[in-house]
Amino acid sequence: MKILHYLTVTPATAPIFEELRKQLSSSTALDHQLLVFFKGMPIQRADDIVTLNPSSSRFTISVERRFVTHLYRYMPDFVHIHGAWSHTAYRVSCWSRRRGFPVVLSTHGLLDKKILDQEFWKKRFPRILLYQRRMIRSMRGIDALHSSESKQLSRLGWNKRIDIVRANDGSSELFDFDQAYLSWYQKILDTDVYNTFGQLEKESLCALLRVANTPVDGHRVLNAQSILTLRELTPPTWRRLFIYASDQHVDNDLRDAITRMQLSLPPSVAEAQERYPWKVEKDGEPLSDSELLERHKRLVAILDNKIKTSEQDMRRMCIMLLNLRHLLRKNTLSLRHLCDFYRLVRDCDIDEDRLADFLDEMHIHRFTGRMMQILHEVLYLEEGYMLVEPLDDTGTEKIRKKLITQI
């Protein structure tokens, strides 16, 4: 794992710089690189330090250009910022996040209440308003120095991803630097697992869900290339797939697909992972096809009075669509619900013209078209099974985003 460390060195942060440099030089498990900006601090040049000092009066443009060039040359897994109250550090975090690199922060005690209260109205409060609060909120993880600082950050409520990575209230002599930070970085990666998905992971997940939820009815469920790709997946890829599948409550579907295809699954993917809590948990209950989650009088009247008793499949389909819309509005719609709906769409034989009339009357015709598009993308639903013509618009894009768990 490659980590790019950044620190603005001032007389106040010089001890942090020396301690960090000593720890990084003794590290063997991680690939570290130290990038610093020496603000008014003349130093002796060193081969293991990359400087970010401006070379001209055009400070921001010069520094940004040099930083971005180095960022893409090194391609780190994390940009790790040390310290607080530096505007240059805030700019570094913005430049990194804008280009898709995750950013974490070690405060080194600079956000403790004692430091915060020093010249609060003259120095701290203006910086909080201008950039410090935004910087804290944008961090994927925060390493507090000790418990009192952690409690102070929790009271501020700017970010809930707070850990004390170091042991013994900041003592650097009795803790394993490599293992402690490696575990922390991995915790962040596991929490934000979908952000690490590439095209391979997305296509593999869709293929496995397709196999698990499609009956073998005389035709090949996947093409030969997809089957070959699944057989060549590496253990880290399987691990990411199962972490995300667990969030979306489809991990059992993945195991069913693996059994059907006789794939070999690495044993490590079943291990429990330490992760940050979600803001909104995805609903893991099966999608009901008999009871409305939202009791609306007009919708209940249509279902009870206009759908014939013999049209049970029609009623089930309408209820599922209304429940999908309800869960989507609550941000709890999961891939589990999508799979339940997919199986009903494939199994039911209904009058599509009559269904279209009901969809128009319940004002969910366009929503149904969007769900057909999502089913086609995620579970490869064929055109012959589609209830209505698929619709790909801004509403469909919102559904795609809400299917991904937001943290």
What attributes does this structure have?
8% strand, single chain, alpha/beta, 407 residues
Quick recap:
The longest helix has 19 residues. With 407 residues, the chain is an alpha/beta fold.
Topology (SSEs and partners):
Blueprint lengths: L1 E8 L4 H12 L5 E8 L10 E3 L7 H16 L3 E5 L4 H12 L4 E4 L6 H5 L2 H19 L3 E2 L3 H10 L5 E2 L13 H15 L7 H15 L10 H8 L3 H13 L3 H11 L35 H9 L6 H18 L5 H13 L4 H10 L3 H15 L14 H10 L4
Parallel strand pairs: 1-2, 1-4, 2-3, 4-5, 5-6, 6-7
Helix pairs in contact: 2-3, 3-5, 8-11, 13-14, 16-17
What does this structure look like?
By secondary structure, the chain is an alpha/beta fold. Helix content is 52%, strand content 8%. Strands 3-2-1-4-5-6-7 form a 7-stranded parallel sheet, sandwiched between helices. Strand 6, helix 6 and strand 7 form a beta-alpha-beta unit. Helix 2 crosses helix 3 and helix 3 packs parallel to helix 5. The longest helix is centred in the first third of the chain and has 19 residues.
Tell me the series of helices and strands, N- to C-terminal.
EHEEHEHEHHEHEHHHHHHHHHHH
- What gap, in angstroms, lies between the N and C termini? 23 Å
**What can be said about the biggest beta sheet?**
7 strands, parallel
Mean pLDDT: 86
* Major β-sheet strand ordering: 3-2-1-4-5-6-7
Class per helix and strand makeup: alpha/beta
- The radius of gyration computed from the alpha-carbon positions, rounded to a whole number of angstroms, is 26 Å
> What is the strand tally?
7
General form: elongated
Helix share bin: 40-55%
Give the uncertain stretches in residue-range form: none
The fraction of residues assigned to DSSP E strands is 5-15%
| Individual helix count | 17
